[in-house]
Design goal:
The protein is of the alpha+beta class. It has one domain: Nucleoside Triphosphate Pyrophosphohydrolase, CATH 3.90.79.10. Helices cover about 20% and strands about 30% of the residues. The chain is built from three helices and eight strands; from the N terminus they run ββββαββββαα. The strands form two sheets. Strands 1, 4, 5, 6 and 7 form a five-stranded mixed β-sheet that branches. Strand 2 and strand 3 form a beta hairpin. The radius of gyration is 15 Å and the shape is globular. The termini are far apart.
């Protein structure tokens, strides 16, 4: 890591694993990444906001999904570091990576409710995938996060 960025803090964030009735996982392709990488909804926690409130807000802001029930708040937090080419660029250069609290939620609605054309769109398209696929679709610097999540989710749905 560049010396200039090593003392930057990790951004505090949340992530949401959305499962449909068949235990498939919601993933979406980011607008700002031209390659074929997919991710689950995630984002920062605002001041005065608790993790669960942030998770519901981020899910709504990114996907318009509101009709969910909380299955589980995963133990601990999972962190990742940004690669060199993104340091100083993402999040206005204020963070070197992100420390995330993850939640597993069940989507109770109809797929027609999912709308990526939000006020500040982040995604181009979305799909439901088998749990084992999440580590094959994610950008490399978030791979470890998704490996950990996959194992934790397997214990919940099996």
């Amino acid at each position: 890591m560049n010396e200039k960025y090593k003392n930057l803090p990790l951004r505090i964030g949340v992530g949401i694993v959305v499962l449909n009735k068949n235990n498939k996982v919601f993933v979406a392709r980011r607008i700002d990444n031209p390659k074929n990488f997919w991710q689950m909804p995630q984002g920062g926690v605002d001041k005065e906001e608790d993790f669960l409130s942030a998770a519901y807000r981020e899910l709504d802001e990114e996907t318009s999904i509101k009709n969910v029930e909380l299955i589980k708040e995963l133990e601990g937090e999972i962190s990742y570091e940004l690669p060199k080419h993104l340091l100083g660029i993402i999040w206005k250069g204020q963070y070197r990576g992100q420390k995330q609290k993850w939640f597993v939620m069940r989507f109770l609605g109809n797929d027609k409710e999912i709308n990526l054309k939000t006020d500040k769109p982040e995604f181009l398209e979305w799909k439901w995938v088998e749990l084992d696929m999440i580590t094959e679709l994610v950008v490399d610097f978030k791979l470890n996060v998704y490996k950990v999540l996959k194992e934790k989710i397997k214990k919940i749905i099996n």
